[in-house]
Amino acid sequence: VDVAKAAGLIGRKRVMDSAPIYDAVATQDTVTLIRSAIRGLLKIVDPDLKAELQAVLQRDDDYTTAGKPVCDWEDPDARIELVDALASDGHGCLEVLDGRELKGPVSRAARLLATVVGQDLEIDADGRFVIARKVAKDRVISTVDPDARHGHKTSARGFDGYKGHIAEDPDSEIITNTTVTAGNVADGAVAEELLADILPTTTNNNNPDTDTGDAGDAGTDTGGDDDDDDDDGGGVPVVYGDCAYGTGELQQVLEDAGVESKCRTQKPVGRKNRFSKAKFKIDLDADTVRCPNKVTVTIRRSKDGTTGTAAFGENCAECPLRKACTESVSGRTISVGPHEAILAKARERQNDPGWQDDYRSTRPKVERKLAHLLRRQHGGRRARMRGRIKVGADFALLAAAQN
Fold it and tell me: What is the pTM of this model?
């Protein structure tokens, strides 16, 4: 990237996108997760602590072999007994470790055991541990690679593993930055890190747990310095991204930094084809909302004033448009978020035909670049190693080779 900038190949435009990177391990079920976590803890502790842990184990299992324990999986009672026994062994080990100063691998193994025991289990009416009928937030899916997560690229397309994020210059198609996150991390959450070389230095990523060194290298001496204008031609930076980057938070960051946003913002969608939020006129200066039936109500603000709610209440009772608007007994309500103004501005801006033509001709270039990175020839679609840091380093190397 530094060489390309010195040659004048990189300008002030950036396009961002992400793609799934499938993990290199098998996704584990709850029984395998808990047993593997106990097994991993017993494997690395010293002999004295191991003896204490083994003394509290109740199952007839030495936890030395991998895989699922023996069980009559067709018998529901047998499955419940197995889960309860595994949970009891896990909690017993955690009680032994409670209050002790643990370091290094032992500390990580203990945290992993506590996570997998706590994320999938609940206590039933009989006081037994059973598998909860829910999906825990940020659920660990493998003890072999605890950084991997369930992810969704679209609502209908799921995957297990990581996301590889890139930013590229759309004119030269040179990748300027990369990072890797768990599969469940939103694209917009790492946008500032990807744009570190064109955002002011005060907004650069200061997270010490950065995946790779390339993000820091790209932003070390280019973040808004005057001497960088000779390399990239100066001008206002422009950023392109799909709806995943059109959040109010990122739109506000870009505007505050003086960056022109070509990130598409999702339009409001009404439930069951009823009136969406876009049908209501929100006047932030007067702090009011007017409905399609031309009824205006005042926005009731929260204590800090950042959010608010406009409740139409009894006005909906005799409204002729009620069936097309709401089925709630208490009437329609409209929520006003902290970034309502910047989102409204973004939606209005993207209605311009010139904006749309520029977006359609520029943003797809990053999708082609991701296809080049992840095609079968390079093997980039599946991680070749475990752990977010190593996967991130490998992804950065792949991007460097592509450049």
Answer: 0.82
